[in-house]
Amino acid sequence: MKPEIRAFAPLAEDLPTPPPQVDWQERRQPTRFKHAGPIMAAFGWAVLPCLVDRSPALVGDYQFDETTPRKPLEWRRWIGQPSGPTLAEVETWVPRAPGANTAILLGAPSQSVFCADLDINDALRSCRVREIFAEIAGPTPFIRTRPGSPHEALLYRAHPDDLPRRTAFVLRNEDGSPSTSKIELLKDGQHVMAYGYRHEGYCPSYEWLPTLHANGHFEVTQPTTAGPGRAPLVTAEQIEAILDAIDREFGIVGHGEPSMPRLVVSNAPSGDYPIIMRSSVVLDDQGRVEDGREGFLFDLVRSIVRTRHDLATSEEGIHELESTVYGEFVRRAVTHVTTPSGKFESDDDIMKDVRDKVVRVAREVASGRIPPIQNGKAYGTRSGAVGRPDRKVVLAPRRPASAKQTEAYRSDGAFAWLGQTGSVAGVTMTKDDATLAAGRSFPSTVGETSERVGKETKTAIEQGVIDMLSWSPTDGSVPPVSCLRGLPGTGKTTSLVTALDAAKSDFGTGPLGYLMAPPAHRNIDQIAADARASGLEVRILRGRSSLCDNPIVPLLEARGISPAGACESRVRSSSGALVTVVCPRRDGCPAFDQYTGLETADLILAPHAFLTMPKIDPGLKAAVRAVVVDEAFHGVVLQSATFPVDTLARVRRAPPVSPGDQAVGRTADTLLDNRIRACRLAVSALKAGADLATVFADRKDGEALVSGAIAVSSRGDSRSARVHPYTDEAGLQSILGIDEYHGREETRFWKIVDERRRLILASRADPDFVVPSHDPRIRLAGETIHLAWRDDLNFRSVPWLLLDGSADNDINERILGCRIKTTHVSAPLRQHVALVRHTGVSQTRLRNAVTERSAGRPSDLLDELAGIVERVSQQHPGEILVVVRGVAEAAMRGMREWPSRIHWGHHNGLKGLNDYARVEAVVMIGSVFPSPDQLDSLAAALSYDDAYPELSLVGRDGRPAWTREMVTVPMRDGGDVAFEAPSTSGEWHKRMLTQTRDEDLVQCVARSRQVHRQEPVSVYVVGDYVPVGTIVDVVTTPERVLAATPKPVVETVTTERPARFKPGIRAVA
């Protein structure tokens, strides 16, 4: 039987000259360049053909004709370059030097890989040194050895400047004398043998050792199965700590002498920014840098940006890096004093230098030319800490060159307690205009507006219900789709229930069969209560895990395994036939009983997830005659996933052979071989930036290759495929032992490739058939493959009614694939808005602040935000809703003994809730801001079937092409404020960016029911963005809010509301 590891053998047809048949040994651990070279090049290694004496091979030794020159490979031209020889170059060397050894050119061409060459003659010492590397720098999956020899080579990654100048370290004997064992750090400009032989003639070849993986199994990771990105990234501090540990245990000749730079570690609360001090640096008596500050600042910038590399790709993140560098520098260096050079005397001077260096280093890190630091927390024993007391620094954001501000103005009305308000950094203000101010005010009483909005909403919904009832599938027309673009919190759901009740009475059509899909289960109970009170027959559908009688189902869902097989599956009997097995608890199971009798329901309630649920129950599909969707639903349609590129080199299990495969003569080995070949082609095409689908469409065996890849990835390592109705907890543990290793993601990858391949073939048969210019659904960024797609919608054969208060209508039309009849209902929002401009409340900043606090360290950011909430609560004696990012909600709740009138919620968690209609103030901290990769996935899922799909925001170099645009916000007094915000040039990117930010902010404030309340709600937006069209009363800063003195004035106000709202009396400020 053929071993599974044969997957790493090359394909003869893909090489310029077909090599001889490769034996089993070559498939397990290749020894020759013709087998290893092309595969390694496809994974991103800089590979060279070398002789056993480590000299470059004569690539003319195996010439095609007499004119081919006989000369060594000129490999030095790749030293220091961002990439090594291309796959095409490597493949041209294969027929000329097929039997050569395969070497890795270290350093920048191989993504900054270096080699710890352990030439240690004692096996116990060699093993212990490897353990020290693993304990401090993390275990590397790349360990090369030779059978019978204790010598080993470990591959890691590091920035060239992080490696010490001294690279050879001789170990001592037990008596202290120098031994013949040494450790050598091979780096940029050197190479290490990956495959081949150490000596001429017979001798064991180099091999790669198996390592323990996260799945609990030992597996071989080698350069023919994974790229350089799998090597752990280490820092100068970790290397020094490793050498210190080896010196303490065995002794290193000359270690501790002044041959290495001094290490100084920051004693900042974060403790994550150590740097190697240059020899030219001079410290004062407090340990601050007094001389050599320019070089120290550059080293500090590089350390911080590489450590917090996730911030280097956005403008907001760069501002945050600037603030961090500024704070660290003024704490660790002598600043704000007069010096002969005139440097670093003022904030402006320091900020200018900081900005310049941060932008330059961030650009290098984002492009991959400088590798990031993943774990820099291991420091050497000689590392000392220097510093001075912390100093709080707030770095002002960049100010537009044309920014001109008005004189200071006073905050009137609801925000009079904020007192005199001056200019705000980064914000341009225009003077007030009385004419514009009149148009931006709202009526003194709510009665007339509330009555009009209620009437228009009721009329629009009634018309939508009539349109749905009037349509018949026998008409031959397309089912209509209507949309009410009303304001959130204006009673659309109540109006719908009333309209359905009236329709049932007027039309007398029997059960209505309307499916209503609110965002989540928590929105359903109130709708059901209102509908039942109106006399409608209501049924509620819930998820399988909450109802199923089989105890294994919730355990499966909790671990991300589909429970469908636990209810019914097809298994192979002892005779080899496929038989259907049904769960013995199926009869009477609530999870299935909920679908019986749906044909008698007027209103079926189910969350958004049912709109795209695969394999929808036939009883539900037959019972639904119309669909009503409440709020935006693109989140269940637009999907994305990521997986590492080395997934395509993973050996998978042989899949069960389906009847369809058997019918065309495919066996398990055939499917495995087809996937191997398909993966090799895919990796090569991805690295070269080629169109994957075209590669397979151009091949006669393209369909067989892709079909084999889909079969193996979907069935070979699938956990879900091994679930059956008699699976118990012991069986579950066995299933969990299977490492799917992104099997579902790989399956989706191949299905996307196959879909486009079929389109390309169809276009070749029909010239009028248009194929999109490229496929943005598959994108390679570094060592990660990004996927995007649209899930298919259920119930598209019946009419739809959308109740969207905040969704983009163009996005809905693209998802539904049709024009939407839209009715708009608008009204002035009874709210006063204060923009508390804060540029440091991003998800990353909040997460870091929570981490600091959980570690017992103070967090200035959380203290500042809690202080703002406290000030607002002192001004407003009524109920207050505080909305913050979910990562910080629990931490802020626990910072004070908050009064019960303060309610807490998180972004994306309040849509459709009716619990906060009586709040007096809303404090919104931060906003939802998608990452560049998320935006690319959303835009790709929307535009992939256009003739010219939208280009990615993130380039192949990993850098996002953000643009900056001025956002103009109208002020209540008739003036305007404008400030810069990140944006993008793509239409769908821009729509999804606005949709994501605006929808959440609008929905959060809408919980206060700003249209139907008499007393306006006070909204405090703590951040740097407000939804488009929002009228702002005042723009201020956190410092001014904290310094203001609350002046609550309690008065009794009788609220004026329409008859359907309960009147109330409450205390307001």
From TrEMBL:
Domain of life from the UniProt record: Bacteria
InterPro entries, per the entry: DNA_primase/pol_bifunc_N (IPR015330)
Positions of the DNA primase/polymerase bifunctional N-terminal domain: 41-210
Name of this protein: DNA primase/polymerase bifunctional N-terminal domain-containing protein
Organism: Aureimonas glaciei
